[in-house]
Amino acid sequence: MSPSVSPRFFTEKEVARHCSKESCWVLKGTRVYDVTGFLRMHPGGEALILRRSGKDISPELEGPPHRHSENARRWMEQYYIGELDRDSTEYYTEDLVDWNKPLAWQVGHLGEKYDAWVHQPVDRPIRLFGNDFFEANTKTSWYMVPAVWMPLVIYLSWYCYSLLAQGSTRVFLTSDYSIPIHKYCFPLIFLVGMFLWSFIEYCIHRFVFHMRPPAHNYYLITLHFLLHGQHHKSPFDGSRLVFPPGIASIAIGAFYLILKQLLPEGLAVSLFVGGLCGYVVYDMIHYYLHYGSPRKGSYLYGLKAYHVKHHFEHQRAGFGITTTFWDHPFNTVIPEQTF
Prior knowledge:
The chain is mostly helical and 339 residues long.
């Protein structure tokens, strides 16, 4: 709600009537929020909010079981629709960009304010470019990832198995001693490739996507925003939760060429196809963590809560997406909390 517009006022009966998935309102003190659009996104599940619909959720925000972060509270203000009475003050948050214009060429001018700004999430669509063609190519439907890459995974799996079946693939430990790679080793090599991907996923997320661009470098700030910053600014933009295949193919092709240079073809491609499958699983899980509603107590339920905390409170930790395994040896684990 714009700070220049007088807030609407609602009676308690009006607020209480909105207690379903189709229309869910809550109170924070005397402030009224329509959180219908947030139900599916809530890391603790929509049932927790629905049980409190029409009621004051201030105690739940403070905890226990956990105190909600400042980013979570700021996020909630986007759903503010009015007041229960006239005693409360108006809410206003200053922004640093013009949301009516493409953001790609604005963020670089934020300088030292960029890091704090980009980690204050909003629930609104982002337009990166003014050109419709470029803008369309920054958006990808989730199903495009398996549609593009899984046929390649299936073909390369068959190719690798056939190549290993020829019995000519060997790993030379010395000039005189080598180990044959049997065709029945393919499933194990495939799984090793998936495991290696989980490490690459962690490294890219931590050291590339979460680099801190120098405050004086317009181009690095812009690059960071295009790569990952826009996702942290608008984490529930469903059109930008998976990588466009065209952009992903550059990194995927680079990894393929590196493996081909380092290892015999049969071994290299077997590892590569396992890693490629791991990438597809990663993108699908990442999308589900933002838009899915996993069953409480399940593995994905824990991952969803973990990832949402990464977005809203612990942006410098919790870099694992498909697994939290690598956060442990690198000491970037997010403290456990109960939802």
